[in-house]
Amino acid sequence: MEQAVRKIALLGMGTVGGGVYEIIERQKEEMPFKIGAALEVVKVLVRNKAKYADRIPAEKLTDVWEDVIGDDSIDIVVEVMGGIEPARTYIKAALEKGKHVVTANKDLMAMHGHELLELAGEHHCDLLFEAAVAGGIPIIRPLKQCLAGNNITEIMGIINGTTNFILTKMKEDGMDFGEALQLATDLGYAEADPTADIEGYDAGRKLAIMASIAFHTSVTFDDVFTEGITKITAKDMRYAKEMGCSIKLLGIAKNTETGIEVKVHPTMIPENHPLAAVNDSFNAVFVHGDAVDDAMFYGRGAGALPTGSAVVGDIMDVARNMLFHCNGRIGCSCYKNLPIKQIGDTTSRYYIRMRLEDRAGTLAAMAGVFAENDASIAILLQKETIENDAEIVVVTHEVAEKKFMDAIKKFSSMEMVKEISSIIRVYALGNV
C-alpha cells in the first residue's frame, strides 16, 4: 500500500519556524509509524529567500503567497509569522480553500480567534493553536479535551518567561528592575523592545485564549486588565519574603457567579503555592476544575524547539484526522455569552507600601480611610524611618477594587502621606 504524504507550507522561518522545520526533519523516519503518513514541507514563505538559501532547498523557498494558496497539493498551512496582518488574511484564505491550519500566533488568536474558528468550522477544517500559549507546555489540548468533563472555575499561570526571569533575579540576587531587565536582554530572554512582556500584554493575550476555551465564552485581549512589573522593587521583594511570599506576574482568570474575571498583574503568593517555585524563564499554568480539583502544567514557555514541539504536535493531529476523515471535529467551544467584569468590579487583597509623616495620629488617620472604604487591615508593619517619615506596609483583607482605589485616591490628597511607593495585589497569605 502506498504511503500517504501530507504536504505542508510553512509561513515564516524565524525562531519558531526554524524549530518546526528542524523537528519535522528529525522525525521524518518516525512519522509514518506515529501518524500513518509522512510529512513533507514543500513550501516555505519568507521575505528574503537569499537569507535561507543555505538551510532550505531553493525549490521550497518562495516570497510569493500565491505560490502557497494556489498549490492544491498543500494540505496544511503552518503560520509562524506572528502579528495580525497579513497572517489573518492568509489563514482565512487557506481555510476558505479547504486547507487545514496550524498557528502559533497568540496576537491573532487573542483578537480574532472566534472568527477564525467559526470559519474553520464552516469549511470542516482544523485550526489548531497549541503553541499560541505557553510554548512547549500542553494546555490548549488539555483544556479542550482532557479536562472537558470539568466545570473549570479558575486558571492561574506564569505565562511569560521574560518577566519571570526578571522577578527571579530580583528575588534571588537582590537586583533592581532595571538591572534584571538588562541581564534578561543580554542573555536573549528580553526583546530589544520588551514592552509587550514587562507591561503584561503578552501574558494578557495568552490569558484571553485560555479563558475563552475554559469558560466557553469569547474573551479577547481587550477584555483583559493588564498591569506590568516595572514598579516592582527589590525592597518589595524583600518585604514579600519576610511575609513568606513571592511576587510573580500572574495571569488570573476566574469564572464567578457574577461574570468572568481576566487580569494580568504582579501578585504576591505564598511560598508554599506551587507557582512560587516556578523560576527563571519557566512557565506554569494552574487549573482548578470541579472534577479534577487542581492540576498544574509546567515547562519551557518559549524557544525554537519547545514552541516548535507544540506546532509539530498540532500538525501530527491534523494528519491523523485526515487519515480518518474527521477534521474539524473540535472547533470553537464558545457556546456561552457570559459577562466579563471590569477590574473595578473584582475583589482582591492588597499590599501597599507608603511613607507617612512620623507623628502621632497618622496611623489612626490611615486606618480611618481604609475603614471608610470597607478595607480592613490584616497586617500593619512599620518598616523604617526615611528622612523623618515612617515607611508603612499594610496588607488588607479582601476588598472591592473600586473601594480600595477610592482609598488610594484619598491618600494621594492627604498632606500626611508623603509617597505611595508600591501597590501589589495579594492572592493569599496563609490563614491571615
UniProtKB/TrEMBL annotation:
The entry's keywords: Amino-acid biosynthesis, Metal-binding, Methionine biosynthesis, NAD, NADP, Oxidoreductase, Sodium, Threonine biosynthesis
Catalytic reaction list: L-homoserine + NADP(+) = L-aspartate 4-semialdehyde + NADPH + H(+)
Requisite cofactors: a metal cation
Binding site for NADPH: K106
Top-level EC class: oxidoreductase
Pathway: Amino-acid biosynthesis; L-methionine biosynthesis via de novo pathway; L-homoserine from L-aspartate: step 3/3; Amino-acid biosynthesis; L-threonine biosynthesis; L-threonine from L-aspartate: step 3/5
EC number: 1.1.1.3
GO MF terms, alphabetically ordered: homoserine dehydrogenase activity; metal ion binding; NADP binding
Family, as annotated: Belongs to the homoserine dehydrogenase family.
Protein name per UniProt: Homoserine dehydrogenase
Organism: Anaerotignum faecicola
